[in-house]
Amino acid sequence: MFDPIVAFFQRVFTAIGRGIGLVVAWLLWPFVAAGNWYRQRSWLLKGPIGLILIGLVLFYGYFIWQTQAWTNFNEDYIDQYKLAERKVPAGSPMSGPGATSTGQSTTGGTANNLAGVATQPMESTPEALAAVQLPAGTVCQTSAIVDVTADLIDFNVNENAWISSMLLYKVGLFGLDWDDTPWLDNKASFQRGVNQAIRRTSVELVDSLGRMRGTSGINNALQSARGNMQFDEETWYFGINPFGPKTPTPSFYRAAMKDLRSFNTSLSKCEAIFDGRSDNLVEFLDRVANDLGNTSAILRERSENHNGGWFDTRADDRFWFAYGQLYGYYGILSAAGADFDNVVAQRGLLPIWTETIKQLRAALRIQPWIISNGEEAGWIMPTHLATMGFYTLRVRSNIVEMRDILAR
């Protein structure tokens, strides 16, 4: 009775197996043909070809390893800076004749309450403070923002290979951009997200944080760092447009890292300025909020218009870029809380600032193996982009609220 039904399903599965076999044979045919050709050649030809093939295997093996090994990735990397132990804001005297007992400053700049420096009352405007010469031997607090930013560059291009400018990443998969495939592009997107936070911060350091507004010139080290960080992310040692050898991207970023460390060295000697006024913090938070708002819009557009679930090959790029950006801002905003400690305390921002840092850390817990861009109302495939967009908007909303409080 059931024999015809059983025979039918046997024929179906046999046909499916035959079809799969044909597909596999078609895919393997070039390699089988190449192997047969190779076996028929003499060793004069086999030797060089074999060496080339071994070289390609090692080359691709190194590339694949670099894309999968995330060296020193640590969601709690900010703990190493011990920011809670900092007693004075960035640029304020810590020790020596110019140090103060509280580390508080009317401006948060390099020249705080310099007891014993002037015998007459001193006007506490940036112009007046910038003109004060600190006594020899005074040591000033370095900027945590600069420390974290420099270390993020170090993490991106020294502790890890910079994927976006590697030759095999530029070549792609048989000419197809790796970003258009589901493979080997997550780390590159993550690094570019971290780099976006670094670039934004380097601009703000030059324009406002590293100078007394209207009274001092742009710091040369910060200016150099900003210029180096604006270099494109994909340059290898050789290029076509223009044709010829080039300096690769990581070299420019390493130079920016050295410039940032040089600035902090000068700041520790009280030879540079960190202007930690509340209006500078307002401007900095505004730029960060705009940056996150742009990323949120990108996530929303992809989530709404391309929700192909696990089959959306660009969803992982968007997700890991946003993740990297939040990873970078987690450290930078934590550092900003230390650099602007007096402003945060005086304006009552500590509760919302702490909550913002907690939300950034919570976003870093989302690390799915496969990124899915499913429908928000779907029940089979998750929607990781919408989840990341939610965390991004939460952080941005808090930053906007802090900016508004400071602007009152």
Automatic annotation (TrEMBL):
Record region (Disordered): 90-113
Species whose genome carries this gene: Ensifer adhaerens
Transmembrane segments: 12-31, 43-65
One Pfam family recorded for the sequence: DUF2333
Keywords: Membrane, Transmembrane, Transmembrane helix
InterPro entries attached to this UniProt entry: UCP029693
Listed Low complexity bias regions: 95-110
Full protein name: DUF2333 family protein
